[in-house]
Amino acid sequence: MTVRDVHHAAPSMTGNLAHLLARHLDGPGRILYHQHTADGWRALDAQAVATDAARWQAAFRREGLAAGDRVALAARNGATWVAIDQAALGLGLVVVPLYVDDNAESIAWCIAHTGARLAIVEGARLAAALASLLRPPAPPVVVLRSGDEPPAGTPADAFVPREAPPFEVVDVADDTLATICFTSGTSGRPKGVMLSHGNIRANVEQCRATGMARADDRFLSILPMSHMFERTGGYYLPLAIGAEVAFARGIAQLPEDLLSRQPTVMFAVPRVLERFRARVEQALSTAPGRRALYEACAERGYRVASGTASRADRLLVPLLRKLVAAPIVARFGGRLRLLVVGGARLDPPLAQTFIGLGVDVLQGYGMTEASPVVAVNREGANVPETVGPPLDGVEVQVSGSGELLVRGANVMRGYWQDEAATRAAIDDAGFLHTGDLAEIVDGRIRITGRAKDILVLTSGEKISPSEVESAILRDPAFEQVMLVGDGRPYPVLLAVSAVKDPKELIRRANARLAGLSRWAKVREIVCADETWDVGNGLVTPTQKLKRPQLLERYRAAIDAAYRRRPHA
Length: 568
What we know:
Structural class: alpha/beta
Largest sheet: 8 strands, mixed
Shape: globular
Distance between the termini: 37 Å
Number of helices: 18
Radius of gyration: 24 Å
Helix content: 25-40%
């Protein structure tokens, strides 16, 4: 099946992505960013960011960097990240964004693999680690916010001049390389996705055409800008329309930042919603009366939002939202109107809960190779069981094997120095092979699984682990889970949980699997001895499970589980 939208709206952006900033410099100072400092929150207008970017451009010129040279950037979200990115893009340099909390070995490999001429990193510790890992000819390392520790590279204050010529934006062709953005690397070495100015600009226009973002919005940036979901949706898109962005300080300060910054739009991964719902339900666990009202509000509110409400629903929902939902929604700052979710499968009941409470959750779908957005639900036409229709100008097909194929101006140039992988990913017709299994119904895309992650039991039955895992995670007893069982007689569940009774966890897991195939039933469980995070290399920066690494880490325990019960 094919869905094709050949809407060709006149583009409002041309050429270099740095025009996104430059276009705000002609006229009154427009507030673009809110950055937390030692003195509290500081508002920054376009001119302040452009002035900072101009100083970085002067430093790049002094370093001898020329168009096409790569600049690696491993830093936390903030106005400095924006200034460095815009400075590099404006001169035709290629930005290599890296996740600052990734392990130093991975960061060093990416720097070396791309032949970066300069590395800008945050913190003296990372700079010191890179100094010992990078082999000659190693690029100079510039250190942001080194604190009291002596940096192993050049402090940014010494690298960037105080005065500089005005911010410059050179003309570039659409296919000029803008960035090499590394995939999450759930298995093996990550691949460097080459995205051009035209790729990203097209995707920004495609997102803009949905009407989901407005010039009077305030975004809260919580996902790493080193990944294209936040970079396009939470940085380039608001910059294109002149919306404000507040940079969250971190997960620990997120509740406070939500209340003080009062965002209207957020881009998030499902894990953020799962944790929020778990905290709410934990707080209600000792108040069965309020828990019942909360569940009634979520169920009836969703029926109202989806147009299937009864007269009683329409009468009761305003009261239930006032009594139950208002204090919960207030935790988002009180003005949130959109939560756009991507990066991993969103469990439909999770979305329905928030929608029922009055927070519009729009699930989308994309991948780095598509700049990254392919499809998204729309306000007023939201079907959480799907990732919505494709964006204008994006063509999608489902192949005979059930794989989703994507074609459009947003599709990458290819993988950096990997022609074989590029040929495998993009066919002769220009379709990007996503590796995701999908269905298209009434113009909407439903992702059914990841082709390479499908478990095939010895019985021949096939199980989509993401579907089972999403269902189990509805129970707050489970913090993280992974289903295994490829080539085995039945599935075994790996789980991170505060509950340590295996039989109780098996019972609770299976209680969430009603309606799924009987082959998905959990018969054995392996309780993990640690939380899976980026630090121990078991999840990606966007919280995707690194399945091969998890299988290797728990191989002995998994084998022991199958020895206890050798048959289904």
